[in-house]
Amino acid sequence: MPDWVRWLLAVGILVVLLAIFIISFVLYRKTPVPKGCEEFEKPSEAKCHGCNQTECHFNLYYNDPVEKAKEEVQQEQTEEQRQETQKEEN
Prior knowledge:
By secondary structure, the protein is mainly α. It has 2 domains: 1-31; 36-90. The chain is built from 4 helices and no strands. The chain starts with a helix and ends with a helix. The mean pLDDT is 79.
């Protein structure tokens, strides 16, 4: 088999796989949300903070690196304030 046929076959396979991906993605996006699952479509901060599963992939608020950094800074500030109040008491 000549090399140009192999290249053509490889490009053809990639195009077919890409077309399958695009078609399946478009069909997935057009699929309506099942009844009873409307509330799970978009996570909210209130729902996520009420949940103790911080490793959940739906928990956008605990997995956000900016939020984690803010929490760490707040924890450091509260620890510094505690240390200052302890020094003042002594």
